[in-house]
Amino acid sequence: METIEHPRLMHAWADRVRAAGLRIGFVPTMGYLHDGHLSLVREARQRADRCVVSIFVNPLQFGPSEDFDRYPCAPERDAALLREAGVDVLYRPTAGAMYPEGFQTQVAVAEVTKGLCGRSRPGHFAGVTTVVAKLFNAVKPHVAVFGEKDYQQLAAIRRMVADLDLDVAVVAGPTVREADGLAMSSRNANLNADEREAARCLSRGLRAAQQAIAGGERRAARIVERAREIVAAESLAGIDYIELVDAATLRPVDDIRRPTVLAMAARIGRTRLIDNVILPGRELEG
Amino acid sequence: METIEHPRLMHAWADRVRAAGLRIGFVPTMGYLHDGHLSLVREARQRADRCVVSIFVNPLQFGPSEDFDRYPCAPERDAALLREAGVDVLYRPTAGAMYPEGFQTQVAVAEVTKGLCGRSRPGHFAGVTTVVAKLFNAVKPHVAVFGEKDYQQLAAIRRMVADLDLDVAVVAGPTVREADGLAMSSRNANLNADEREAARCLSRGLRAAQQAIAGGERRAARIVERAREIVAAESLAGIDYIELVDAATLRPVDDIRRPTVLAMAARIGRTRLIDNVILPGRELEG
Predict the structure, then answer these.
(1) Quick check: B159 and A102 CB within 8 A?
(2) Residue A194 CA: distances (Å) to CA of A180, A191, A237, A268, B232
(3) What is the value of pTM for the model shown?
(4) Which CATH number, 3.30.360.10, 3.40.50.720, 3.40.50.620, 3.30.470.20, labels domain A2-173?
């Protein structure tokens, strides 16, 4: 596995690979890798001839009171995991190469970033779309794989790719969960034992909502309420939002006739976690 | 010459050309071509194996009270000129292909777009950088050529390319002028005979300022004042701005020690014209 640290060297690698007629698959990450990331890497490898993974903890997407300074980090372990997973290039640009003196350009997606996490994390998604645009321009992938756990991020990137005529196929990888249901996240490392136990309430809330749907419930308010009861019962959890939204526009919906997403964010101690389930559209009966 | 009207078809063409190991040169325009555009085409052809010219009158970069509806247009004449100039592809996307329902992404450069034209044309440069990002992503050029007449646009695009790690070499082509000094612009077509005569004041003002510099003047205020006297003496002209700014940051400067640009905008009747001269840095003497 080759490590590349500068956009210009990444360009040169990508040009060589493309000139040889090979397809480039790409998985952008912030490191501290877990099985969720590795499942995205497998997906990228299946869809391309060469696989690039980036590790860059992007300061632009953290608010001033957020956890940039305590975002977990294990560079040697990450590199070993990626080597083992058959990754060809680890793209690990320095902050100085990414945001040199005078940097002043922003890529922003307006509508899909307004609600959900966008409400409590102003500027977060502009930071995400800006850095992903940079990473795409550096790596020149044919296909890029993102996790469905960060559903709003996925929707923003799909929108950006369509709107900016980027020639990149965006593929979504399903959320990978721990045995007890907790969605894998690098931030889970910041939970203590009690918080780790409490964090189960997110996936339990989603499961309860899905059971309500399986029992015939179609109304958004009732579905959300089922999830909310579970999370609210957990004393260590503080709900940021639980919402049922259209799967493409992320606008709130009244029922689940179209494809929707039940998305939630909650603080467990100092750690903010997100989770969601994607619901295929179901006709209202009767 | 091939005409391509959709980003996805443009991608396919660009991939074929790049796979053949050929370099793509690109000149984005809004059509109604003049010798200034054609000089940029010659530059692009010299620097690449294939030449793409786009014609797209971009609604995003016109304010609500601006001249989008009366921007001059001559599609058949333009196509003939480009064919004659040896252009390989005319990329002429439709507005529907560029901004379909749900479009919501913006690429914006903050600092260099604040002053000069940015003050009287809010949103203009975000429209420019957004459409140029789209055009770059569609055409995948190795090199793109922009006119120095639109100096602030050139500075914004250079900044965008650097900030977003775009693998495109941006080349500037010198302003081409009519025999009497008027900078060529598609908008000159909107001038009546009296206005056309009056429009000479812009380049005359710049020339007067350059003469002052040749005579030893280094102070920005005096240099600007020389240009302003000339333009203000023209009764049909309304000055928007005349400023001496740093050539890279576009911040106002006090003298011309570093490379600077003397830039101006003025309304001649209903037509807004711009012009500038680029001044190499000169040490203050004595």
Answers:
(1) yes
(2) 14, 8, 11, 10, 75
(3) 0.97
(4) 3.40.50.620
